[in-house]
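This part of the workshop introduces the protein records we will be handling. Each record describes a single protein and holds just a pair of labelled lines. Instead of coordinates, the fold is spelled out as a row of discrete tokens. To make this concrete, we reproduce a full record directly below:
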Amino acid sequence: MGCYLPWGCLFLVLSIVYSRFPSSSGCIMEERAALMDISSWIVSIKSEVPSSWENGDDCCSWKRIMCDNSTRRILRLDLSQIYQPNASYGSDGSTSAEADVPCFNLNMTIFSSFRELQLLDFSGNYACLQNFNGLQGLRKLKYLNLSDNTFIESIPVSIRKLVSLEVINLRGNNMSGALQNTGFKNLRNLRELNLGSNQLSGSLPASVFALPCLEYLDLSENLFQGHIPINSSWKCSSMLQTIRLSENMLSAPGSLFGGGFDGMDFSYSNHYDLQGFTFTTKWNSYTYGRNFFMSMSGIDLSANMLSGEIPMEIGNLSHIKSLNLSNNFFTGSIPATFANLSEIESLDLSENRLNGSIPRQLTRLSSLEVFSVAYNNLSGCLPDSGQFGAFGMDSYRGNSNLRSCTSSSGPVAWNGTVGNVADDTDPILYVVSAVSFVLAFWATVTFVFCHSFGQRVILNL
């Protein structure tokens, strides 16, 4: 029958319109209600709600939240490490988090009201997640970080519907199963994909490597097997710059990449802003900032089961900054084409089965700062010009047939010195010098006081 009073109808319409626009305090009501639901969840897991969430109704002024200045819609929601496990105190006063942290169930539909959301960081909260329901309607979501939580079993197939994503980080989520048919091939806007530190297995799907906009791929610390699906027929826009496949069980009978590196070009892009990440070389872990594409590109294949000869085509990656092939089963010689890696800063080939000599052409690598071929079967002369003049013996340790070939030096002594060169700190030298001094002193005293000629000399003085 409608409203009996015109003013009642007008009030109803205004109430509906009011709910769709910023309130007088500057916060969308439905988004504030969703934040209150999140606040209740935080309380239920016995953690602390940010103090600013209890001050006023303007959620755009609260910490961990960023809104659009005109629409007052929430654009960024940072709930990383919102859960802090209770700490236990040791006898020395030090603290440590509880070893057994419970997994708290979270329904992702709690985020469905943030329709303009572009960034969601829910990392490090020990939450049990089942699917991506609730995120599928967030058509502007570009950055999603759910690392260090727990997904029940495998990657939910519902991820294929998050087509607006450009960055997704699911590192350390205890996910298992294969990557095949998981829907990542639908995420054609992806620039960063991080699935490291899980229990994913099976072979590496070529569709992941072929994502047209992908720049950074991290599949390290999983259980992947087989070869790396990159070859000369790979259809890619050459955007992929950094690949981390370390600590898997990858092997490569016959060819490292099932066809070689022909046609690959690792180039840079500086138009996108990513969260920082850590890239591991043999000696150190380096954390790169958000604009790392302006200065860094690398491949980390360390700690796998890769075998055979290192493809000479890797030398075509002239823009690469870091290459880590350590802890594998590579044989044969170091490719002389590595001299074409003109921008390389870190090269780690340690703990393989490489033989032959170190190519002299590598001395042309003027940017090289970290170099290791330790624990191989290399022989011949050590390079001593260019950057190689600054590398210590640790770079060559475990290669008994390597030697210094300079005119004034002998074979390499693996205690850090060069053979046939006396050490000024040798204790035997000190002992001989001391004994010689004592003998000379007493011989002089005996001559002066006991010999007649010595006595006459003293009297004449």
Remarks:
- The CA atoms of residues 276 and 289 lie 4 Å apart.
- The radius of gyration is 33 Å.
- DSSP finds five helices and 30 strands in the chain.
